[in-house]
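Please fill in the sequence for the structure shown.

STRUCTURE ENCODING:
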């Protein structure tokens, strides 16, 4: 190693941060359970005490009765509206299906029309203060009433094989001055003519009765016509009738949805049930809060710590070759072992690793007679590495030392060696101390072959 990177800017590795948090799962779980139990227990107790208060119980009962009455009233209104809408839809569908007028093409409407002149014996008496009563208007209105009445049209409807209400839409009777105009609209020439003839026959049949009841008069045909016309007003009426069916269906669907969404108020739960429910909710909240607090402090500690977290940090921060990874204790099992495998901290047996370390030392070192093993870890770990390397590296003198920042004897050994192997431990070794170690080695112009890392 020729120089030390003093301009290194520490970067936050989110993966390392995540695994640092996950490895503290015991503390996170413990905090979540403790705070959940405390908060949930406190809330359950306070809720139980409050629910047993007589005034609270009475208020809750009154509130429930008020809400229940409002719910039942609203439900009844929705059900009544649904019933009315269902009836309206059925009637509208039947009307659109059976109504002759609604099924006539507005661009091919057959219209039969006749104008009838009504003459009475009324005369104006010259030079007379008192005049005879003119019954002409009364006679005209009587004919109009008779010809459009349900009783009169029923017989014609039976002959036309339809219902009176549908026939009534086809016949229009208007009166002006001494004229009675009868208009019949239908889907064909023959049907329009047949209905008009039936109306005129009925008019003639009622003449004697009207004469007897009101006064003498005569009826004569002035004009008669029949032909096909285009009726845009009819097209608008048909469209309005169809739109009404759509509107009714939409209103029914909306009302049914509102009824389904209508929620019946629940009676106040018993004090025990309310306490349990409230306690569970706040226990979950407390658990989440406790876990969050612990995770927050773990993240802060990770970011503020200058300790080496993983072997890759030694490579990126100090450009050290990692000679091998060793377990600092018993292999982790269960969740910790699973997390180690996910993180990539899978290591072979000690014999395999020491064999690899020794091979790396030989590959990276040339013409070295004495090798110093030192680092910032415990003396026991340094001694362990030195003894194993001495066995693996025949013909190479291996000496061990302590932390040279704290042990003067190790500093005295530094000039005697040809190269140095550092021993560091993840989450124990401090980055600043490693940097000082490297500076001491560089000052003595000694080579650093690499680093043995304990996980």
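FILLED IN BY: designer on duty
SEQUENCE:
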């Amino acid at each position: 190693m020729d120089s030390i990177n003093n301009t290194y800017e520490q970067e936050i590795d989110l993966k390392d941060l995540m695994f640092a948090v996950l490895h503290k799962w015991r503390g996170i779980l413990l905090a979540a359970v403790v705070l959940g139990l405390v908060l949930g227990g406190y809330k359950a107790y306070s809720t139980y005490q409050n629910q047993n208060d007589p005034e609270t119980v009475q208020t809750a009962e009154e509130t429930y009765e008020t809400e229940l009455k409002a719910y039942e009233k609203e439900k009844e209104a929705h059900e009544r509206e649904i019933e009315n809408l269902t009836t309206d839809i059925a009637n509208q569908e039947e009307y659109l299906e059976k109504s002759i007028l609604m099924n006539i093409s507005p661009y091919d409407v057959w219209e039969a029309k006749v104008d009838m002149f009504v003459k009475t014996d009324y005369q104006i008496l010259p030079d007379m203060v008192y005049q005879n009563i003119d019954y002409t208007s009364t006679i005209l209105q009587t004919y109009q009433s008779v010809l459009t009445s349900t009783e009169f049209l029923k017989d014609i409807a039976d002959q036309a094989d339809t219902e009176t209400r549908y026939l009534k839409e086809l016949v229009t009777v208007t009166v002006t001055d001494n004229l009675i105009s009868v208009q019949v609209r239908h889907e064909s020439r023959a049907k329009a003519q047949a209905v008009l003839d039936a109306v005129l026959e009925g008019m003639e049949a009622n003449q004697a009765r009207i004469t007897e009841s009101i006064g003498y008069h005569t009826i004569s045909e002035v004009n008669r016509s029949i032909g096909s016309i285009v009726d845009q007003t009819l097209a608008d009426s048909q469209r309005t009738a169809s739109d009404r069916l759509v509107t009714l269906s939409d209103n029914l669907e909306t009302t049914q949805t509102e009824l389904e969404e209508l929620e019946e108020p629940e009676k106040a739960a018993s004090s025990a049930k309310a306490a349990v429910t409230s306690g569970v909710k706040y226990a979950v909240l407390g658990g989440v809060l406790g876990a969050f607090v612990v995770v927050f402090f773990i993240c802060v500690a990770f970011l503020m710590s200058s300790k080496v977290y993983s072997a890759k940090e030694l490579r990126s921060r100090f450009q050290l070759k990692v000679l091998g990874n060793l377990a600092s204790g018993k292999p982790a099992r269960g969740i910790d072992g699973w997390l180690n495998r996910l993180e990539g901290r899978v290591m072979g047996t000690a014999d395999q690793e020491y064999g690899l370390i020794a091979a790396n030392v030989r590959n990276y070192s040339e013409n070295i007679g004495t090798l110093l093993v030192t680092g910032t870890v415990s003396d026991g770990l340094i001694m362990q590495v030195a003894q194993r390397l001495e066995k693996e590296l025949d013909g190479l003198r291996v000496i061990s030392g302590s932390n040279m920042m704290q042990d003067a004897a190790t500093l005295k050994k530094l000039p005697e060696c040809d190269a140095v192997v550092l021993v560091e431990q993840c989450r124990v070794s401090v980055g600043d101390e490693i940097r000082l170690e490297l500076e001491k080695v560089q000052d003595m112009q000694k080579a650093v072959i690499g680093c043995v890392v304990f996980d």
